[in-house]
Amino acid sequence: MRMRHFEDGIAFARKKDEEDVLFGMRKRFCIQPGELYMDGNSLGMASKDAKESLYHVIDLWEKHGINIWEVENSKYFLYQNFLGDRVAKLIGAKADEVTIMTNTTVNIHKGISTFYHPTKERYKILVDDLNFPTDRYAIDSQVKLKGYDPKDAVKVVKSADGRLIDEDAIIEAMTDDVLICFLPAVLYRSAQLLDMERVTAEAHKRGIIIGWDLCHSIGSVPHDFAAIDPDFAVWCSYKYLSAGPGAIAGFYMNSRHFDKEPGLTGWFGNKNETQFQLRHEFDKDPTAHGWQTGTQPLFSMAPMEGILNIYEEAGMEQIRAKSLDITAYLMYLIEEKLSQYGYSIGNPREDSKRGGHVCLEHEEAYRICKALKENHVIPDFREPNVIRLAPVALYISYEEVYNLIDILAEIVETKAYEKMSHERSLVV
Questions:
Q1: Please, which of 89, 158, 356, 420 could form a disulfide with 220 given CB 3.0 to 4.6 Å?
Q2: Domain 51-312: assigned CATH number
Q3: Any binding-site annotation on 238?
Q4: Cut 0.90: pTM above it
């Protein structure tokens, strides 16, 4: 693990900000006065660039109506290609292997349905028990559609401690009856980053198709899909990528599978050249765009164009370097100043094994989250005892992290959390 030098005190935090090569990016985001936004792992902060892109598309709709599809050399009719080419760079994929469409859950359905052709000998889908629930809902649904019982056909690798997944256990579970393996790149609660290259290679040794959920890694962790070589992947765009609430999602299909028939088809997956001939026979686009279905929602896509400008200027390597450093600084301060108040760290410490957020644990986590909001800090709670804190590299400063620690200490020291209800809100 890389050795870093940290010190207590606000002066050290300010010195770190002065040395931060990404500090200037903060002015590109819509930072709210007096608020400390630590929830970029759940919904990224709005950027001025994203707003400009969205407003531009709205203006084009107002001016051109249906002719919006033909302006700027048909850019918006082919927006999924334009954006897909740029997002592909974030994961080290070929441009034609990435498309932008629908949402994460639907894209899981698209990936699984393409590859799930079970036989008597090989019919199981391998998953873990810590992944985000929507992944399991989609997989269970696909299994049922083929007439199987998820209790039999969905093979679950159990976590030993409720925090982390044992990669050896995953590989051991890759038995001859497993057809597909689907896993998270980064666990949404504990921020564990799996060794995707190793697990993918082991799956392929056994003839198993493997897909990855990048929702909690894309935009925070650089991926090299040329080296990892997965079969497919999905992700959302509203967390670290900051493309807006419910923003359109992404989909990767390895080029070796371009000849496959998508499990779900629609007219936007048709070749551009024959799409408006409106035939009733599907003429599949020969790239990842062949997995498109319906007409693209431009207003859901436009903010992504703006935020990608920022990502391309900053560079994923610099973003990852600061993310690892500022989360390590946060963990240092937690251990130095918060352990006496019952706080502990529930995520891996090694750089190679963690994503972009810190998993802060406390038996009163839920009420502490409510108290944080009373103090104008936006955190994130996950059952049973996790406060997720994401000092996103592009817009969170070291000084803000230092101030956060003081607020966390005061909430427990003064027992301010005791004034908060245990009752869960609609959006936790």
A1: 356
A2: 3.40.640.10
A3: yes
A4: yes
What residue spans define the domains of the chain?
10-30+316-419, 51-312
216 labeled part of a ligand binding site = yes
Q: Is 133 within any annotated ligand binding site?
A: yes
Is 104 annotated to bind ligand? yes
The string of pLDDT tens digits covering residues 269-296 is 999 999 999 999 999 999 999 999 999 9
132 in a labelled binding site:
yes
Per-residue pLDDT of 166-220, as tens digits, reads: 999 999 999 999 999 999 999 999 999 999 999 999 999 999 999 999 999 999 9
Q: Is 85 assigned to a binding site? A: no
Give the 3-state DSSP-derived string for 171-206, with helices as H, strands as E and coil as C. HHCCCCCEEEEEEECECCCCCEECCHHHHHHHHHHC
Q: Is 362 annotated as a binding residue?
A: no
3-state secondary structure of 81: helix
Q: If you classify domain 10-30+316-419 with CATH, what class do you get? A: alpha beta
Residue 281's contacts (CB-CB under 8 Å, 6 or more residues apart) are none
Do residues 25 and 395 touch, judged by C-beta distance below 8 A? yes
- 176 labeled binding residue: no
pLDDT of 357 higher than 70 = yes
